[in-house]
Amino acid sequence: MKPIITGIQAETLTPFAYHSLMVQGGTATLPELVSDQTLMFGLAASLGMMRNTVCLPEKGYRRDLEAMPWRASVLTADAPRLLPPVARRLNLEEEGGMPQRLYAVTSSGNLKTYFFTQEVPPGWCFRGVVRF
Question: What is the pLDDT of residue 111?
Fold first, then answer.
């Protein structure tokens, strides 16, 4: 059976941020792409193929990807941009207390109490291909 390759266009419905690019005081998103694995798992979830459980599944990305009947390219955007930085706050103290080991790392990295993110805006179009 010959594979079917279909061009796709995806539009962001809400702002989103990946913690993919370290910047001073937080993280920024790489606005020019959506990864192939993000797209594949997003399609699987949208089509009801993901297991609904409160337990975390055993890690097996290779197993999960092999079970999907498609492959995808990275989605890219023309002239990408980011929204202005947004201050975020982790509510570690209010959500059940903060264990000492967690408290020790809140002053560095992505576990700072306050940090900034930059998101891709809604209405942004990404293009790529899916092979069935």
Answer: 56
